Amino acid sequence: MYVVERYVDSVTIVDVSGRLALGEAADVLHDKIRSLRQQGHRQIVINLGKVPYMDSSGLGALVSCHAAMSRDGGRLKLLCLTERLENLLMVSRLLNVFECFDDEASAVASFKPGGATAG
Description:
Transcription Regulator spoIIAA
């Protein structure tokens, strides 16, 4: 799994590619978000468009990252869920926990006052 960060305005985009599953992959994502939080980043979008598979460990990493960001006064949103990932979030009843976006521009705009809504 690969995790790369980039910036659009004041929003940090974390592009994830590969399987988000038990072991190192979930730890890599969790460590990246922790590092960004420690650096003061409070507006993060995780792009999951190139994640073909996620297990409960990967889901747990997302939930943990979301909770930590919320505690720190930040917001974490998801971008480009594949049908498989969307179904996983729906079945686990977590789809309502995360703000999810289909395109990057809407995700970035959602951080601005009166910005885009999830969709």
